[in-house]
Request: fold
Amino acid sequence: MATIRIDSVRCLRPQDVVGEDETKLYIQGLQVWDGKMGRGETLNPNLTRQFSNTVLVELKEQNGNNNEKSLGRWTLPSTPTANGNAPLTATSSGYHYEVYYDVF
Ligand SMILES: [Ca+2]
Reply:
């Protein structure tokens, strides 16, 4: 088994034009965290999940009442990450997020 730890989520630019994003993290298809995020804000979910082989991480944003927009999704191997590994980056013309994590 391997473990993924999500250390922090950094919002460089929210997807919502007005107000804060309702940012959500999914691991293996299950929501594990949510937070309100504005420009330049960093939150620390500091959550861990065990997995084998690969783990699917997805960042979403509540976009209207019953509609979640996927901002980015990544399939990560169980290989331990190096010190200071690069964050997962979700970016488009409308938003920019970084997700800092470790696998060990
Ligand atoms: Ca929203």
